[in-house]
Amino acid sequence: MDFQKLYESKLTTAEEAVKVVKSGDWVDYSWCTNHPVALDKALAARKDELEDVKVRGGVTMWMPEIAKADDAPEHFSWNSWHCSGVDRKIIAKGMGYFNPMRYSELPRFYRENIDVDVVMMQVPPMDKHGNFSFSIAPSHLYDMCQKAKTIIVEVNTNLPRCYGLYKTEINIQDVDMVVEGDNPAIPELGSAPATDVDRAVANLIVPEIPNGACLQLGIGGMPNTVGALIAESDLKDLGVHTEMYVDAFVDIAQAGKITGKNKTLDPGRQVFAFAAGTKKLYDYVDMNPDVVGAPVDYTNDVHVVASLDNFISINNIVDLDLFGQVNAESAGVKQISGTGGQLDFVLGAYLSKGGKSFICMSSAMKGKDGSLKSRIVPTLTNGSIVTDPRSTIHYLVTEYGMINLKGMSTWQRAAAIISIAHPQFRDELIASAEKMGIWKKSNKR
To answer: Per the CATH hierarchy, to which homologous superfamily does domain 196-435 belong?
Structure first.
């Protein structure tokens, strides 16, 4: 088959391509770095012709054109699978909503529960076999495309091509229209400099990691600081199996710490569901056979994670209560991020032979008024989401220490959790625990 001839027959402009969208349609913008740019701009230009167009995306890295107009909510709604700061701004505008999920279930959502009228996504250029790589966001895109009535790809030469295990590409035969965009640079996702608290937490976690461990790092300063410390450590023969591939993994790999030779699945390969970071990361993963994408129902599957020996999961959270309930995604009713894969990795790591799950956080934070506020609270704020039930937590870490909650009764948990709270708040937390009947008289104050 002449793939190039087929490509040329499907080549069109963004303005022509978006004419397929009708009022009431469900339109998928794919995920993170693969959100469309030229197609989004062209769809926004049709605003006054459309109403009730429902758009899905997730981990949004730039403001979509369809969300910029003052009257955008009258024409479009934004439905996010996982909120970034941009998603939160769209929600605040009154046109955005969050779709609750365990990230590992998302491909199945598309197979069984979701209608897709039009898919619009950025992809790297087609290869000689007629395939477009899903680049650094394979995640759920294969199943999303399988369900779509119309598929439009927007080619961006700046997106890296990535190797994949399976379901990480689409062939020109299955694409309806091709648009050659303006090749915008991929937005970079940096991280804030490590704080003293970040380093204190990292220094508690890294000694718990054995040689040959398989790593998963969550989003945020603390997991990244742990990664930086691993890169500087004497650890060796580490593996990677993660939801999100971040810059820290590049640093660890370039320090010679990653070989993956002890992985019980996919030996020698760093496996991810999506990636975002700086240009350093994008250059590193481009056609690198050591780093491979996979669908999120593989990367985040509890059974897959559990089958990887010495699996180490490191994630941070918003706050936690004295029962050990973890909120990693909201401030009361205000959505901050999402459940993502945290619960899957917490469960899978504990089931892994030699595995450990670490939930880390600073013990306190400064409020808008400048006062110090404890991140360990008696009970979660009304409306806060329980991301990880109290029955699932393994290791909990703040700058004041590390505790293992497995096997503890409620009074033991309360005492252990308070022991790593900020000292300023310990007495009032004890008083709250007494009122709630989870403080034993024999506990030390």
So the answer is: Acetyl-CoA hydrolase/transferase C-terminal domain (3.40.1080.20)
Place of tokens 């309930």: 325
pTM of the model: 0.95
Q: What is the pLDDT of residues 85-104, one digit of tens each?
A: 999 999 999 999 999 999 99
Is residue 262 a contact partner of residue 212, using CB atoms and an 8 Å limit?
yes
Domains 17-180 and 196-435 alike in fold: yes
Which residue intervals of 157-195 are DSSP H helices? none
* The token pair that represents 269 in the structure block: 């390969």
Which are the catalytic amino acids? 243
Domain residue limits, the chain? 17-180, 196-435
Nearest in space to 293 (alpha carbons), one of 176, 76, 140: 140
- 79 Cβ partners below 8 Å, 6+ apart? 54, 55, 56, 57, 96, 97, 98, 99
Spatial CB neighbours of 353, under 8 Å, sequence gap ≥ 6: 309, 310
Q: Among candidates 360, 335, 95, which has minimal Cα distance to 203?
A: 360
Is residue 157 exposed (0-12), middle (13-18) or buried (19+ Cβ within 10 Å)?
Answer: exposed
User: Given CA atoms 259, 257, 345, 100 in this order, what sign does their dihedral have?
Assistant: negative
In 13-159 the beta strands, taken as DSSP E runs, fall at: 26-28, 53-57, 76-80, 96-98, 116-123, 131-133, 148-155
**Spatial separation of the C-alpha atoms in residues 439 and 101, rounded to whole Å:** 35
* Angstrom distances, CA of residue 375 to CA of 122, 221, 225, 371: 39, 16, 20, 13
Number of CB atoms found within 10 A of residue 2's CB: 9
What are the mean pLDDT values of the chain's consecutive 10-residue runs (445 residues total)? 96 98 98 98 97 97 97 97 96 96 97 97 98 98 98 98 97 98 92 86 95 91 83 95 96 96 97 96 97 98 98 95 96 91 96 97 90 96 94 97 97 97 96 95 72
**CATH classification (class only), 17-180:** alpha beta
Taking only the tens place, the pLDDT of each residue in 284-313 is: 999 999 999 999 999 999 999 999 999 999
Joined together, the tokens standing for residue 354 give 């030699």
**Single-letter code of the amino acid located at 307:** S
**Type of residue at 312:** I
* Residue partners of 186: CB distance under 8 A and separation at least 6: 33, 158, 159, 279, 282
From 420, 422, 415, select the one nearest 442 (Cα to Cα).
415
Give the up-direction half-sphere exposure of residue 320: CA atoms within 13 A in the CB hemisphere. 31
State the number of CA atoms in the 13 A half-sphere of 384 facing the CB.
20
